[in-house]
Amino acid sequence: MYIEFALFAAFVFFAILDVKKRQIKAYWFVALAIFVIIHKIAFDSDNILSDLLLFATSAVFVGVAFLCKLFGKADLLGILILSFAIPHIGPIPAGIPLLLTTLFVQNWVIIISNMAYNFSDLAQGNTLFSDMPYLKNHRLRKAWWFFLARCKRPRDRFILSAERFDEMGVMQLSIKRENKLTPDTKYVFSAHPQFVYSTMAFAFLWFVGLALK
User: How many domains does the chain fold into?
Assistant: First the structure.
């Protein structure tokens, strides 16, 4: 049981670093990986082959998600280390539910917060996306962006630009990390530190795993 406590403490620490500095040094992951490997060799060597097979399954799934840019390198390393330390949750390789739960929680938090911001703007008599001509006659597309984008606030920290300009210089909404965030950017989407959601997902799945035992 103590390995779960140690990993959860490490995830909380990484989440704090992600929020405060927006960067987690690689040596923290190296230290955690060494700790997990030593623990496996010393206390759980009998199951190491089956654990490696489960880890490989998780690694393939998580690797594909990383190549699809669903999360960053820090999240990749954290999920891989956790998948080796705790190979399965119930009968399922641990990396798969951890990744899916992280993305589910993150996306719903972003959607709900965007809706709250946008409803607040409408309640104050502000218009949304009125400066986007290509959305004018597309209600479904406009509704889609109501969930995904919002107007920038003065004290926003974790955001990315939701704007791009076509060859004619016309602004359109777009969700891409390479979009340039400038002081004049009006529309943004949230880019909360993802390790916070990975930690929340880990805590949730840990309790689920305990319930399944």
Answer: 2
Q: pTM for the whole thing?
A: 0.80
Q: Which two tokens stand for residue 127?
A: 């218009």
> What sign results for the dihedral spanned by CA atoms 181, 186, 189, 194?
positive
48-102 residue pLDDT tens: 888 888 899 989 998 998 888 888 888 888 889 988 888 877 778 888 888 899 8
Same domain? For 149 and 182 the reply is yes
Nearest by Cα to 194 from 63, 57, 68, 78: 78
Are 60 and 99 in contact by the 8 Å Cβ rule? The answer is: no
What is the helix (H) or strand (E) element at residue 102, kind and residue range? helix 95-123
DSSP letter at 47?
G
**Residues forming a β-bridge with 150:** 188
Is the torsion defined by CA of 66, 70, 72, 75 positive or negative?
negative
Would you call 136 helix, strand, or coil by DSSP? coil
Instruction: Identify the domain containing residue 28 by its residue range.
Output: 2-106+193-212
